[in-house]
Structures are given as structure tokens and as C-alpha cells.
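tool_call: predict_structure(chain=1)
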Amino acid sequence: MTMRGTMAVAVAATMAWALGGCSTEVDTGVTGVPTGYVGVRPYTTLPASSETAAGVDWGTAPTSYRGRNGLRVKYDCPANGGGGSVWGSDIYTDDSSVCNAAVHFGRISVAAGGSVVIEIRAGRTSYSGSLRNGISSMNYGEWSGSFIVL
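tool_result:
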């Protein structure tokens, strides 16, 4: 590989690492792609940095994970839930109820409950509310922590 190719591999690997959620691989030319080509592919499994939340109820929010961006956390929401507020749509403030956000997103139901995985994200300048799946989420301005439902 040339020095130029080596630099391209290093830059691509660094960028993929900085963006998170991706891994890099150097093609050996077996697939017909020129040797030295760097492809970026999404993770197909949960990264090692994942946890399971304990003592979950329908008011549980992931505020204790704030700042651990990219961390994936599993929540087991009990059946026949209710209660807990939600701010945002698709991206929720980290003081929102995880279980209600999961219903809003369409992953579980209030009646059945279920397991859901969220990913911790950085805060945003604003959050838009909406009515989905019987859950009304609210608008909110700037907040310092967020999560998404996977």
C-alpha cells in the first residue's frame, strides 16, 4: 500500500471512530474492491458498552446516564403501565419516561409492556412533541441530554 493509501485508511478509521456506531475494515481485494479501500459498516450487534437498567417502572427516566453518549441501555417495562411524561418525538429528553417513549415510538404497548433498548445521546436545542400510539409527547426547548428508542 502506498503512503497515500495508508493515510486514507488512517483518516477513514479515525472518522468512523469519532462518529461512533461504525467499524472500519480494509478490503484485501478479494471482493473485487481495490486493495486499501476502507469500508464503513453499521454495527450488527450491541456494542460492549451496554447495560440493563434495574428497578424499572413507567416513570423511570435515563437521566443518570447523561453524558454517556452512545451507551445502549435495556429497560424491561412491566405490563399494565401508565404514568410518566414524555418530551420530544423520535429523540426524547433524558428526563422522559423510557417506557412511555417506547410506546410513543411504537416498540411496546401499555397493556403488554416489554423490553426496549435505548441509546443515550447529546442534548438538543429543541424537541417537538406529537400524539402517537395513544401517548401525547410535549414540545420542549433546549435540554442537556437525550435518548432514542432502538
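agent: The chain is about 15% helix and 30% strand. Proceeding to next step.
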